[in-house]
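Design request, tokens follow.
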């Protein structure tokens, strides 16, 4: 079985959030990291509004930025199979450096390719945190405030959110419909 004939079953977990927010997906091993970024944005539920990078050990992969203090490898042509090689391998995905969202990505299983070439979400739990809510600490506080509808902070939070937010919500079918669209359903700001 060649690398072009394989798919990966990976789990993406948002770190430092209790209870855990995670997704299991099946994805082609030859997807590029920029496209994998788009898939992550869609399956987790982010809005592609902030900077991001992949990390493998001390190496960062992202879009080179002359103004950045961080050194990174241009990830444009880097395949997922370059950074995940065997079952159990782990990489990290950082999103929104201000809020500090870190995701752990684990290669759970290498499987024979199927006729389905689009990424597929096969399982997961909980809704993506709202953008700009203050990272894991802010999100954990947000969930706590939402649990007490009589508290003063509750009304302020609902006003800030601008819409209903259910931290337990997860809709695998809606995610899979998005993954079939252009850019895997991810808003692109290129």
């Amino acid at each position: 079985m060649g690398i072009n004939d394989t798919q990966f079953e990976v789990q993406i977990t948002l770190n430092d959030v209790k209870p855990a927010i995670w997704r299991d997906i099946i994805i082609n091993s030859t997807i590029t990291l920029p496209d994998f970024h788009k898939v992550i944005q869609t399956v987790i539920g982010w809005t592609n509004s902030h900077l991001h990078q992949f990390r493998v050990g001390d190496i960062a992969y992202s879009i080179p930025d002359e103004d950045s203090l961080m050194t990174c490898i241009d990830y444009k042509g880097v395949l997922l199979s370059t950074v995940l090689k065997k079952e159990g391998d782990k990489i990290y995905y950082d999103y929104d450096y201000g809020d500090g969202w870190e995701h752990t990505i684990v290669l759970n299983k290498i499987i024979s390719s199927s006729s389905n070439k689009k990424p597929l979400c096969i399982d997961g739990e909980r809704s993506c945190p709202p953008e700009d809510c203050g990272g894991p600490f802010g999100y954990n506080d947000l969930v706590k405030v939402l649990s007490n509808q009589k508290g003063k902070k509750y009304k302020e939070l609902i006003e800030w959110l601008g819409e209903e937010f259910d931290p337990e919500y997860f809709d695998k079918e809606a995610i899979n419909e998005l993954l079939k669209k252009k850019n895997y359903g991810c808003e692109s700001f290129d």
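Comment from the thread starter after seeing the answer: thanks! Strands lie at 6-14, 21-28, 52-56, 59-62, 73-74, 90-95, 101-112, 120-125.
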